[in-house]
Amino acid sequence: MTDGAAEAILEAAAKRFGHAEVFEETSEAIEVSFEDNRLKEITTVQVRGIGLRVIRDGRIGFASTTDLRDPARLVDMAGASAEFGDEARFAFPTQPAGIEAPATWDDDVPAVQAARLVEMGREGLEMSLRASPEYLYGCGVSRATGSQRILNSAGLDVRQRATSMSASVGIQEISEAGFLQVYEYTTSGRVIDSVADLTRETLQKMRDASVVVPARLEAMPMIFTPKALGNLLAPLSVALNGKHVHKGSSVLRGRLGEQILDARITLTDDPTVPFAAGTRATDDEGLPARRTHLFDRGVLKTFRTDLQTAALLGVEPGANAARGYSSRPVPSSSNVIVAPGDTSLDDMIAGMKRGVVVDQTLGSGQSNVLAGEFSVNLDLGFLVENGRVVGRVKDCMVAGNVYEILRQLEAVGSEARWLGGTCAPPLMVGGLKLAAQG
Fold first, then answer.
1. How far apart, in whole angstroms, are the C-alpha atoms of residue 321 and residue 306?
2. What mean pLDDT value characterizes the chain?
3. What sign for the dihedral angle of Cα 320, 322, 327, 330?
């Protein structure tokens, strides 16, 4: 980033409009991908950009650029957009005192070169080929570094940086039973030095899924693995967004303090977890990040807000703003944590007379998410009979309402797993309908 660019832009914008904020972002990433048993591509991406938010005549303006040769143009664009912007109901924050910076940077991550990422992918490919030459192996491995700086006309100037690595493995097979795809993935702020564990887990599920068993229309208990749990968490996230609460489209509006979910569900937003995907010292408006209970033992405690949304709702800001340099801040999650329970996955399965383990789905987001509804195709699910997995079910759908489902839990898993920015255990629910297609 051009030296002094952020300061110069802020100075010019503040001089013209009185209130301004600069969001400066730099990132660099290397990604290696394998597809159909061969190396597909190696990509390197570098991003440098600045976003400028101003308050002009009481309205919010915004513009962004990656071309810093003409900073005055950025200031002009931000000012011009304010004519059509929302009324500003907030003031830019001052410099916070005593920010506690969680661990987000691992010096070993920038040292990982593309050649090592390729080697990791090839190690996984060899494992897959040894298991079956008929398998089509895919893999993505990346490492990235990023930094950001937020400064505003109220005197705030905060900086933070982070490292990250991610790895995903997907294996496909086309057979008489049809098309099968299994995938696993992981992310970390620290070095990921192998995809062997992901590949082994994927291969085991390929073997488990090799036997296809018939399914029928029936209501039965289901276990949602951490990988499939996003189908239940996504509608909650939408309803917890302060923007939807203010607009009246959230079913949770006016229900703070109510018992919404099963008392075994505690849902936390925690940006302080070392080296997790959403860890940060401040949110993207410069407010100190903090751990917050969204649901505490099923009771709704708070909503996610940024500065503008909090002002509209008449509440204290939740420090939940997220953005990139090219976008305005919006309320969003950091690290989502579902508290574990006391039942192992093995015990859940052993206690099932007849049920399904839901591990992968397709088509989420097609239902009335605002009402908490979901309807998905079962991409990878296993039928359980008398406490034993007997095979894979296919051509099935699962539908329901998350608020009803999460009030009729049968068990909460004891083993929580990190996937992206979410750490959650498996959940066992009762009475869901499995619909067989065709």
1. 5
2. 96
3. negative
